[in-house]
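Because discrete structure vocabularies remain unfamiliar, we first show an illustrative case, written as a sequence plus integers encoding its fold.
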Amino acid sequence: MVEVQSEAAIAPSSKLAEAILESFGADVNMCFQCGKCGAGCPIAFAMDYTPSQLIHAAQLGLNDLILGSKTIWLCAACETCTTRCPQGVDIAKVMDAAKIIAVQEKVEPAVGPVRSFHQAAVASIRHFGRMWEVGMIASLKLRTGDYFKDLELGKRMMCKRKLKLIPSFTGSRRAGKIFARVRKAEKQKSWRR
């Protein structure tokens, strides 16, 4: 008689995979590498690893490969991969989790000034309750020191009234409360235990 092992004994596991499951609710061990996520990804052409390759790396515990990849920073979070997954793996959430962990671990992003963009965008949302593009762009330019790049595009967008000069403060109080709750939750829960 053949003895059948339980799924837990068969599934590979890593500290990163466990952290993604525990802290973010996405189980990378459910992936069986069908490749549907990468086949439907609109950004896959620019990625260094496909989403399924990163999921497999998470299963194997290749943290440096994941946290140092371009893929996690290029992900558009469109959730096409999540929708296509026959196993129900929330791949977009895995990408977000990897970004959060990379920031916590102070891993420098493999894609240009993405950390500066992220910080400028989050600051804009924290202060105004929503994205104020002009303020976010000004903050980004100050952070990167690249003052004149995209200046012509900015002028054209201003002429077409695509950018608001004055921010809207609707939701700023609510956004402040949300950020406070997130900071509190982050202090209580860390992926490294």
In short: Residues 114-185 form one domain. The chain has two domains: 11-104, 114-185. DSSP finds twelve helices and no strands in the chain.
